[in-house]
């Protein structure tokens, strides 16, 4: 019997991989598509980050999308799951990262947002409609935290692939291409969606409050070229629409059709389907000096909303997180929790150092 030579097997496997890569390149050339590796990857893999207000239904949204009949649990820190879909011979994977704690833990976005997946990532910000005094500040802090991480990633990526920034910018503008408000908008670098949660309770608010909150949500979504959806896990038609939104972001399926901008109904507005003219001016109380302080439309809206619903950051809800509740003090368990926190910080640090080392090696090999 002829003995197996592991090096020959390895060489044969390498030749097979090279031949497959050549076949892909030839097919792309024949099709006339100058498609990057990230663009090929985009067809079969995605990263969706779900964050937002505390206890507003983020986990329920994910479970409905995955068709899991489970009771949602409180999200502590950053949790990962995934969904799969088969299309013919292709298997698509959607990586879902859920961030708990409102906007306090936005630094953990460095884990799902990496140079390797920045071009296949999207963001979902879920806001509690029943807490208008926290709505704007929560959205603003999460947008700022995500944008800061994206900028860090782009600084890393641009040393090797300067065109990534241009592609992200072009894709962002494409979401609102041809719109008369394009020059007034600030399309977010990655696809983004705002989800107004607890609509089943919000629909019972006073009409004027509903109108102003709806206008503010519409402005945010249009300004960032985002999807806008009002959602409730207790209303089947809205739960179905929420599932369709995640499927659209994770698997590039068709977005739900139609548009709804009536404040008496649950809002649904795809990117580029609204306008600042239709939204109207922000609610400015008589005698307000807001218009004098604000230099940009978004600053004008921020000040106006803050006058109607003074914004305050959500307090950490220790009553639901037993690890922080003084009534449940357990020294041994507390030590383990603290160790887990240190481990998480160390993991984030090591991940960054590893990515930096990989980039240095790539630069040396060039």
Automatic annotation (TrEMBL):
The molecular function terms of the Gene Ontology recorded here are:
dynein heavy chain binding
| Compartment annotation | Cytoplasm, Cytoskeleton, Cilium basal body
GO biological process annotations for this chain's record? intraciliary retrograde transport; intraciliary transport involved in cilium assembly
Mark the transmembrane ranges.
Answer: none
Keyword Ribonucleoprotein on this protein? Answer: no
Q: Which InterPro entries match?
A: DYNC2LI1 (IPR040045), P-loop_NTPase (IPR027417)
For this UniProt entry, what's an example GO CC term?
microtubule
Q: What domain of life is recorded for the organism? A: Eukaryota
Cited SUPFAM superfamilies: P-loop containing nucleoside triphosphate hydrolases
Q: Note the Gene3D superfamilies from the entry.
A: P-loop containing nucleotide triphosphate hydrolases
| Keyword annotations from UniProtKB, A to Z | Cell projection, Cilium, Cilium biogenesis/degradation, Cytoplasm, Cytoskeleton, Developmental protein, Dynein, Microtubule, Motor protein
The family assignment reads: Belongs to the dynein light intermediate chain family.
Could you identify this protein by its name? Answer: Cytoplasmic dynein 2 light intermediate chain 1
